[in-house]
Amino acid sequence: MKRTLTLLTLLLALLALLVLPAAAADLPRLVDNADLLMADDAEALLADLDSRSEALQFDIVIVTVDSLDGETPRNYAEDFFWYNNYGLGEDRDGALLLVAMDTRDWYIATHGFGITAITPAGREAMVDRFLPQLSNAEYAAAFSTFAEECEDYVNQARNGSAYDTGNLPDEPFEAPGFLWVVACLLFGALIGGITVGVMAAKHKTVRRQPAANSYVVQDSLHLTQQSDLFLYANTTRTARPKDNDRSGSDAHSGSGGSSFGGGGGKF
After folding, report:
1. Are 162 and 119 in contact (CB under 8 A)?
2. CB 227 within 8 A of CB 71
3. Which helix (H) or strand (E) holds 68?
4. Residue 58, CB half-sphere, CA atoms under 13 Å: how many?
């Protein structure tokens, strides 16, 4: 009887493991192993990542390292995501930004719905927002921008129109200050006035003539022969446009045999 109960308990435990959702991540959503952030900035950023991730049910993860230990950025990022149990929901939806200081690499690994939400073309537009900050060592600002962009991209994709070729977010525009505009206009008017004044002073002796004959010396031009000569021809060549379409998906088999998307570069 006891053996039967023990066997039944084991079967129930095994069944629970099969039907329960994936366990929570083993590590926090911010892993700053390269110590790029001050304590206060790290605390605020982690709270922001947790808040956005839980609200979206989409993991937004940031990892910094001093060294890739010989791994490629892609393999390191995908292994870190997969084997530390990141990703929310049945498909483990999420995106991870890896920053490696030894090689100055960044890499964004996407999984689950992240592959749909962050297309190759969309990722390039996203990187344009945070890469200048990352390159200038404004790490807290760069990571906050990444989190904001991920939230925007996920919401956009869930509304049925993921950012992609022909449907990319607008570039941010910073309008110049009012005083700066006024100063530029006044400076331009001053330079224009001085230029016109100098030109006018050089032509005080010029008088308007009633006809063009006034500028030609009588009987000074005699044509003895005239002909048409072909000198040269202009040929214009237009290069055939290359196929730079980055639309669609860059999904591939990654860690654990699961499907990942993503891409990276230098900062």
Report:
1. yes
2. no
3. none
4. 25
- Among residues 112, 140, 107, the alpha carbon closest in space to that of 123 is found at 107
Structure tokens at 264: 């990276």
Enumerate the β-bridge partners of residue 191.
Answer: none
What integer pLDDT is reported at residue 91 of this predicted model? 97
**Rg over CA atoms, the chain:** 33
The pLDDT value recorded for residue 20 is 37
pTM as predicted? 0.66
pLDDT of residue 169: 84
pLDDT of residue 173: 44
Task: Single out the residue of 249, 251, 267, 250 nearest to residue 259, CA to CA.
Answer: 251
Each residue of 200-235: b (16+ CB within 10 Å) or e?
eeeeeeeeeeeeeeeeeeeeeeeeeeeeeeeeeeee
Name residues of the chain where pLDDT drops below 50.
1-22, 173-178, 180-182, 184, 240-246
CA angle in degrees (0–180, nearest 5) for 52-126-23: 35
